[in-house]
Each structure stands twice: as structure tokens, then as C-alpha cells.
Design goal:
This protein is mainly alpha-helical. The chain contains 9 helices and no strands.
Length: 224
């Protein structure tokens, strides 16, 4: 794969895809959980983050949003946006110009909200989700995807599978995502005769086994 894309760039493209999808997943889950904290169960936010093996504390529903976005834990949205930005900068030459600008805009928007202590509301979250949607729209709007686009897509798909397994388990949609991941890995493996690609079936006992196996297959693609 090194002849087409450096291992460093491929790795950063893959993780850029994962971080963007992780932010998207968290923001998508966040508002329904916020409503649930208000109307049904104040502990709903704690239950959400338990799915990521993270314990959080908050005073009320509004505080839950603040902790989810900017709290002292490794899945706060602002930190994930910073990771996405760092990966985007490293593989800048392989990213659509508009998409790169939107990654930076997402980071700046969340950093400004954190520094200025803006109240977290639907508008901020919707703006962040819209930016992520625009980023993916820019990445995939070309008629023929590049190798770099496929590494971005791979990160996105694996993160989607991770989320789905955490909250919905092994079902038909998880199998469909697995098939898409295997298809993308197979496509990328076809560019390197040294890679012996094998499909990963959804037969492992735990979600951790599945994601780690998928991630290991990605690593086998991008070793120099």
C-alpha cells in the first residue's frame, strides 16, 4: 500500500474516519438521552456512557450535556474533535479541501463553545452534526473514490459497527456493516499482493473481539 499511500497517511485517514463517526454517534445519542434525563430517568446519561465503560457524574440534564461535550473523560466531544483535527492536518494532502476546512470549523466551533462557556443546546449539536454530514458529502461526492477515501470510509464503517454492537448487539444491521467492511478491506487488499485478505464473520463471542479483529485487518493493510 506504501506505493499508493504512505502508512502514516493511511493510518491517520482511518482514524479521522473513526473520530468523525464517533462524534456523530455521540451527538446523535446525546439529545434523546438529554430528553430522557429531563422526563424519565436522570441516570440515563450515566447508562449511555456505561456502554463505553466510562463513569460520568452530573447534576442535571443540562449538566449532562456539558459533561458529554467538555467533561474530564476520554470520550468528550471536544477532545474527539481535536483528535480528528490532528489526523486531518497530518493527511491534509489526501483530503478534499472543503472537507478539511469543515473539520477545522468543527474543531473551532467546539473549542469556542468550551472557552466561552456557551450553554449546550440543540442548535450547537445540530450545527456540529450538519458539519459532519457536509464533511462526508464532500469526501464522497466525486464519481470515483480514491484509495484515501476508502481508508476514511473504513474508519467510518468500523466505528459505526462498534456503536451498533455496544447498543444493539448482533443483528441484521451489524451483519450488513460487517459485509461492507469486509468488502472495503477486500478492495484495498487487491492493491497489494502481499496482503492475504480474509473475511471476518460475525461469530466472535464479544463486540470487543469483533472490533479488534477488524482493526487488526486494517493494520495488515497499512504496514510499510
Amino acid at each position: 500500500m506504501g506505493q499508493l499511500l504512505t502508512a502514516n497517511s493511511a493510518t491517520n485517514l482511518y482514524w479521522l474516519g473513526r473520530y468523525l463517526e464517533r462524534i456523530n454517534g455521540l451527538l446523535t445519542y446525546m439529545m434523546p438521552v438529554y430528553d430522557e434525563c429531563i422526563d424519565i430517568d436522570k441516570e440515563a446519561g450515566k447508562k449511555l456512557y456505561k456502554g463505553f465503560s466510562i463513569e460520568i457524574e452530573y447534576e442535571n440534564a443540562s449538566d449532562f450535556l456539558t459533561v458529554a461535550m467538555f467533561g474530564d473523560h476520554n470520550s468528550n466531544v471536544a477532545m474527539l474533535a481535536e483528535y480528528a483535527r490532528e489526523n486531518a492536518i497530518i493527511c491534509r494532502n489526501y483530503i478534499n479541501t472543503e472537507a478539511f476546512g469543515e473539520v477545522i470549523e468543527l474543531y473551532n466551533m467546539l473549542q469556542n463553545a468550551a472557552k466561552n462557556h456557551h450553554e449546550i443546546d440543540y442548535r450547537l449539536i445540530n450545527n456540529a452534526l450538519s458539519l459532519i454530514s457536509e464533511i462526508w458529502g464532500e469526501v464522497f461526492k466525486v464519481s470515483k473514490s480514491s484509495i484515501s477515501d476508502h481508508f476514511l470510509r473504513l474508519g467510518r464503517l468500523i466505528e459505526r459497527l462498534d456503536f451498533h454492537l455496544r447498543f444493539h448487539g448482533h443483528d441484521e444491521h451489524a451483519l450488513n456493516l460487517s459485509d461492507q467492511i469486509n468488502g472495503t478491506i477486500g478492495f484495498l487488499a487487491s492493491y497489494d499482493a502481499t496482503v492475504q485478505e480474509k473475511s471476518t464473520q460475525m461469530t466472535m463471542d464479544s463486540k470487543t473481539d469483533i472490533i479488534e479483529t477488524m482493526h487488526a485487518k486494517v493494520q495488515s493493510l497499512i504496514v510499510e
